[in-house]
Amino acid sequence: MIRFTQASKRYPSGHDALSNISLHIEPGELAFVTGHSGAGKSTLLKLIALLERPSRGQVLVNGQNLARIKRRQIPYFRRNIGIIFQDHQLLFDRTVFDNVALPLIIAGHPRAEVGRRVRAALDKVGLLKKEKLYPITLSGGEQQRVGIARAVVHKPPLLLADEPTGNLDPELSSEIMNIFREFSQVGVTTLIASHDLELIQKMQARQIILSQGQIIDDGVSAGAEQAP
Fold first, then answer.
1. SS (H, E, C) 132-155
2. pLDDT at 227
């Protein structure tokens, strides 16, 4: 599903955010990207979502070489990705329903299908009864759930989350992570950047550890040793 081959990212300031990253993530896999602040976690996700492009090397998503995707094609490429941010990035002047519906409306789906998909997504994250409320009336954990519903409402095969539990307490964080696990169990490739090592350990999933822009452990060897 995702393959990095000697990929690097240097910003105009001269900062090397990522250096010679080689990585393969299988379809339907749940994996965590972790490491110290500034290790390159967010940059790695941005390369996958074409929010940034590599300075060198190659990034493939679902067999597609991202270097060959032209600027005007990027919005269509992103329709196959669900992206979740730490700060939710919700529209506070629109209801929960309207926030979740936005990707479907932009894509031109029929009204009846929009309603069906939005309510299915809200039901999945436990917010079906709050579709008419505005995000400002919700708790931080509920707002994050709205963000997740919006990211998955168009049924993307790939889900990216950047520090999705950074502002939540441990109990809410576990609930959010279990939602991600459920999506992975139905075949959605799920990649989560997080510095919450204790929570990641509980998830018992692959850990990709970054340090100063390089992979120091891709989690594959450990997984192989545990295999029967």
1. CCCHHHCCHHHHHHHHHHHHHCCC
2. 37
How large is the C-alpha radius of gyration of the chain?
18
Which is nearest to 7 in space by CA: 18, 16, 43?
18
Task: Enter the tokens of residue 195.
Answer: 């510095």
If the chain, 228 residues long, is cut into consecutive pieces of 10 residues, what is the mean pLDDT of each piece? 97 95 96 94 96 96 95 93 87 96 92 95 94 95 94 95 88 90 94 92 94 94 41
The beta strand positions in the chain, using DSSP E, are 2-10, 16-25, 30-35, 56-61, 64-65, 81-84, 158-162, 189-193, 206-211, 214-217
- Give the whole-angstrom CA distance, residue 228 versus residue 226: 6
Dihedral (Cα; 130, 134, 137, 143), 10-degree rounding: 70
Contacts of residue 51, defined as CB under 8 A and 6 or more positions apart, other chains included, come to: 45
Q: For residue 4, what are its two tokens?
A: 């990095």
- Residues 120 and 102: their CA atoms lie apart, in Å, by 15
Instruction: State residue 221's pLDDT score.
Output: 54
Two tokens at 133?
A: 């409320």
Angle at 52 between CA 102 and CA 3, to 5 degrees: 95
Task: State the sign of the Cα–Cα–Cα–Cα dihedral 158, 176, 147, 38.
Answer: negative
pLDDT, residue 167, reads 78
Q: CA-to-CA distance for 213 and 159, rounded, in angstroms?
A: 22
Domain end residue (candidates: 133, 155, 177) = 155
In a domain, 85, yes or no: no
**Domain region containing 68:** 1-80+157-228
